[in-house]
């Protein structure tokens, strides 16, 4: 499996991810896309060591975010042992241990790209009629940027030029390609092979353009337990399950201490 980190600079949760990966060498590979001038400073024994890929400048809300995701996928596809691809940011953390996450993804028949269309300005309202006939209004989709996908979908996205050009031209603020390009593309090309949900938990309940951020005061074992089993039921390979989220965001750097404290107990790393 490939873990793709999209970050501007430092990875405050690297110590937690290092514990998560420990002892599972050979089953994962890590790729980091940071700003071009940034150099990641980690010890030579870290899974992040030497894993930065050639990057380009990224600005929030533009097609450059999609380009960075494509770069990460392209680099990860070069390793033929990678069958599953997870996009994470510097504020993401795992909420289950490595064997649980690995089994869940490797045995899944579907990809986890959130994809929906609702009739509100922030979703259906962002559709540009100039995208027709290649993308019709009823084919337009929105979803979380934080995907998990299979190798065939990843390869298709990297190879795609046609839809990328349409989105670059017609999805400009207040349309954000990172929220629409992959959800729409997979709906058009891989619809039945997608679970239409994300495995990365985010709290949007406060409203506004950015999700809630959690620091030291909030991050307790009960909080992590609530993310793991938050009362939602979802489908996994056609059967209902309560294990819907494997990762969570957004966490502030101050959450590292409490998370490391529970990594051996609750998280069982």
Write the layout of secondary structure elements.
Layout: E1 2-6, H1 14-21, E2 29-33, H2 63-77, E3 84-89, E4 93-94, H3 98-106, E5 148-150, H4 151-159, H5 162-170, H6 177-190, E6 200-201, H7 221-228, E7 234-236, E8 239-241, E9 247-248, H8 256-261
Parallel strand pairs: 1-2, 1-3, 6-9
Antiparallel strand pairs: 3-5, 4-9, 7-8
Helix pairs in contact: 2-4
What's this, in brief?
The chain is of the alpha/beta class and 269 residues long.
Task: Give a structural overview.
The protein is an alpha/beta fold and 269 residues long. Helix content is 29%, strand content 12%. It contains eight helices and nine strands. It has helices at residues 14-21, 63-77, 98-106, 151-159, 162-170, 177-190, 221-228, 256-261, and strands spanning 2-6, 29-33, 84-89, 93-94, 148-150, 200-201, 234-236, 239-241, 247-248. A four-stranded mixed sheet has the order 2-1-3-5. Helix 1 (14-21) links the parallel strand 1 and strand 2. The chain starts with a strand and ends in an 8-residue tail after the last helix. The mean pLDDT is 95.
């Amino acid at each position: 499996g490939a873990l793709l980190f999209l970050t501007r600079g430092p990875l405050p949760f690297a110590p937690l991810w290092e514990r998560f990966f420990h002892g599972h060498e050979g089953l994962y590979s890590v790729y980091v896309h940071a700003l071009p001038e940034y150099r990641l400073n980690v010890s030579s024994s870290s899974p992040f060591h030497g894993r930065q890929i050639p990057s380009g400048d990224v600005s929030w809300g533009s097609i450059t975010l999609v380009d960075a995701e494509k770069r990460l996928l392209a680099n990860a596809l070069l390793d033929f042992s990678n069958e599953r691809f997870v996009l994470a940011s510097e504020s993401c953390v795992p909420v289950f241990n490595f064997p649980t996450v690995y089994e869940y993804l490797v045995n899944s028949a579907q990809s986890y790209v959130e994809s929906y269309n609702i009739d509100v300005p922030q979703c259906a309202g962002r559709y540009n009629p100039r995208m027709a006939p290649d993308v019709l209004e009823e084919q337009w989709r929105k979803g979380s940027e934080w995907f998990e996908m299979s190798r065939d979908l990843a390869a298709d996205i990297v190879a795609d030029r046609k839809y990328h050009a349409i989105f670059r031209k017609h999805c400009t603020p207040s349309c954000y390609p990172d929220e629409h390009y992959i959800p729409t593309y997979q709906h058009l090309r891989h619809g039945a092979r997608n679970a239409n949900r994300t495995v990365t938990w985010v709290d949007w309940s406060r409203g506004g353009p950015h999700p809630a951020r959690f620091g030291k005061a909030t991050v307790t074992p009960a909080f992590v337990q609530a993310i793991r089993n938050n009362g939602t039921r979802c489908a996994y390979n056609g059967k209902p399950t309560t294990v819907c989220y494997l990762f969570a965001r957004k966490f502030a750097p101050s959450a590292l201490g409490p998370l490391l404290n529970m990594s051996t107990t609750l998280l069982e790393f």
